[in-house]
Amino acid sequence: MSQISRRQFLQGGTLFAGTLALTACGGGASEDTSAQGADETVADQSATTDGAAGYTTVEAGKLTCISNLFFPPFESMNEQTGDPEGFDIDVSKSLAEHMGLEVNWLPSQDFDTLVPTIKNGGKADVAIAGMTITDKRKEEVDMSDPYVDSNQSIVIKSGTDETAETLDDAEKVIAVQSGTTGQEWAQENLPQATIKPLSTVIEAMSGVQTGLYNAVVCDLPVSKYQIKTSYTDLEVIEEIPTGEQYGIAVSKDNPGLLEAINSALAAMESDGSMAAIEAEWFGSAL
Amino acid sequence: MGQTSRHGRGRFAVALCALACALTLLAPTAAFGLTTNKATARPNEDGGSSVIGGLPTRLTWEGTVDEGEEVSSVTLVLPEGSSFDGTTTKVTVLEGLSRAQLEGEVKPATQSLVVVFSKPATAGLLLRLEVEGVLFPSEGGDVVVRGTYVNQNGEQDLAESKPIATIANTPLQALLASLDANPVVEAWNSSPFLGMFFKPQLLVTAFATLIPGWLLCLLIVCIAYPFAIILGLIFALMKISRNRLIRAIAIIYVNVLRGTPLFLQIYIMFFGLPMMNINIDNNVLGVIVIAINASAYLAEIFRAGIESIPPGQYEAASSLGMGHMMTMVNIILPQTIRRVIPTVTSDFITSYKDTSLLSSVGVMELMMFAKNLTSVSGNMTPYVAAAIFYLIVTLPLIKGVTIIEKRMARSERGGGPRPKVKAKTAEGVTGDPAEKGAEPSLVEALSAPFRPATTDIAGMGGVADVQ
Lengths: 286, 467
What we know:
Oligomer: heterodimer
CATH class of the largest domain in chain A: Alpha Beta
Number of domains of chain A: 2
Strand content of chain A: 15-25%
Distance between the termini of chain B: 77 Å
Mean pLDDT of chain B: 81
Mean pLDDT of chain A: 82
């Protein structure tokens, strides 16, 4: 009996090892093909649209975008249809228009997975996610020229009487969105407090509303918008001037695409389409 | 919007004034035309929150130009043993919250860093320098950023920053540095798959930093489970009660909890209770949610276990003059417990894994630590390390379940502790001769109690024998 079970175990083991090996190959292969193509779609597209433009896209003729879609007003999902909408979505549409592509938004994913996804390639071309240009991110991916300025903010529940000083305390819990510059700011400037990285700003704000966390550190435009539209019982207690700027993340393997995006951004700036999008989402003041 | 910002700026200005006053009081001889707001460093401990000396970090220095001053350059000086070599600096000049059109040219030397502005910075401007790649002294300690600046009157001293607390290089960090330098590790990491999922440096860091999270997971499930078993047993007994109301309550409880995702239950408990002003510690609440959720599944397992005991047992008990209660406690439940052990263990494994969902509401358990580490490293390896931590517990349990199931199946078939000769005869009766020597099938073992009485006789005999 025991002999048979050992043999069965060995068979199982071999099968498992084989699967692992296959997965490993798969992983390696998909990496290499992100540029050229085992996929038919990729092969197709390099022959057609993008040969002339000097870059390739994941899907022919389409600019495939990823983001965390819980970051209004930059990106959110329409309440009725569930389609992505927001400042960045309009930017992507205008960008695609200027580049002669169609825009294709993939489902929302966690913010901290965006840079690895773009780095690995094969799934999306760009991450447009209110993402600040930082040196650390630039080590992993290329960042486009800046398209929006932003700052940080500390948000608390109105009437809780917290300040930046009282929050820097071991008893206090600061919610942040995982992988954001807000998280970095909190870790660096509120070293005593407990930092809770969550997957969306919405979760963080709901938590502050219910008293689960003492404060949120997040991008100022987002906190202002959220307080105005949904979380009316929260307030910004400190506007932190960081002067950070958002950029679009592109894989380092795709310098042609980065170039095309930068020139499209410049064109949007000069033909007024960027100003129009800004006016729509932030009023005239930004 | 305007109001908030004015409000914020007002406070900010007050804070600045206070700070300036404090500084003036501290060092009455120097009048500062450039107020040092802060100097901080980004934590560079992998998975931790400390600033470690001797490893690259990012220094952020901020200063505000005071009334009537024009600052044309700033020099930052770090203590002995620090280095600005090979750093890149981002110079940001802000007026309120918007960026001012002012560039800075940066010249790093070993211990100092000079920033010359394209035009003099005027009063009210905030100068923000982010220096990436700074090395603090490797022995650790408090680091104070000093320096000078040049205004219209010449070179002036900068106010000292608040000290930045740094720690000495730890053995773990030293090990990581040696891994970084290893060419084999480098070759390994250059493979996209291996580097993304099995990066040795991150595996080491993750194993060290995930332990508290792992212990919390174990703690939560180990405290929750005894409660879940008691609750589950109560609801199982309620569910087979003859009273219709009690039965209805149990059915609702079990069906609602089994019919909704645990994720949702967690959200309701964690966000709902504080709204009703019920504030329970997060970890305790985690225990409660897991216990309640598991109890519903356990109730079903126990009920099925109790109902799987053949009616003959009840009849035999009553023929011996036992009451319903006595039959339950002395005859039925002991047999039930024996039968449900494998299923309960499987459910324990599920509950243990389900603690990962608590990370979404800020319980610092295994997944939370892994997520944290992934977000700072942009690499999937911490998740793999977390998987290993889960497997350390679940694999032995799974093995245990298999062993118990085999034994049970054998005893159900009339095998088990009987003498060998008899066991063979029993096998001859129930099993196909071709199957002789093969492992008992799990389906057969579990379905044994449900099969018609004719085939069940052998099984019942087995159970009775063990008793």
